[in-house]
Amino acid sequence: MSSNDTTSAGTGDACTNCAPFHARREFLRTLAASAAGALLTLGASPAAARALDMRFTDASERRGDEASYPVPDADCATIDADNEVILVRYHNAVYAFALSCPHQNTALKWLKDEGRFQCPKHKSKYEPDGTFIEGRATRGMDRYVVRRDGAKVVVDLGKLIEQDKDGAGWSAAQVAVS
Hints:
This protein is an alpha+beta fold. It contains three helices and 13 strands. It has helices at 20-38, 46-49, 167-172, and strands at residues 53-56, 61-63, 66-70, 76-80, 85-90, 93-98, 109-111, 116-118, 125-126, 132-134, 143-149, 152-161, 175-176. The strands form three sheets. Strands 1-4-5-6-13 form a five-stranded mixed beta sheet, with no helix packed on it. A four-stranded antiparallel beta sheet has the order 2-3-12-11. Strand 8 (116-118) and strand 9 (125-126) form a beta hairpin. The protein is globular and about 40 Å long. Residues 1-22 and 32-52 have low confidence and may be disordered.
């Protein structure tokens, strides 16, 4: 095992000896690299997805557990690494997702050529709206509760909805836009 290998001998658990600081920093570094190289676009189909935008942002306002963002003016993914949120406009709706795969919390990637999200660790696949396609995960991407406030989308960072525990809430966690 090399000095750079973070897998514990015999356990197979990644980063067993890492301090939480290093794990968070590596997660954000992986996220930034994944997002920059992979989350290039979102859209109505794989062909349309390849033609759209990926952006980085910070919340325009943060109050308690709520973060506000401008309503995206076109289909795209907007990454807020500080709040660990992916804001997606897709098919006339806006969604807010946790950055990590619901299976084992690995930073998700956008596969531009295939028009979908994928977990690099176990290859779980998701539609741009977070719907689970296939893989080891057992549910869609975790969604935050969102609401519209004028020209802003407000994300409740204290209310993360898991599709398998609250299917109706998960389906409702979106804001209609035109």
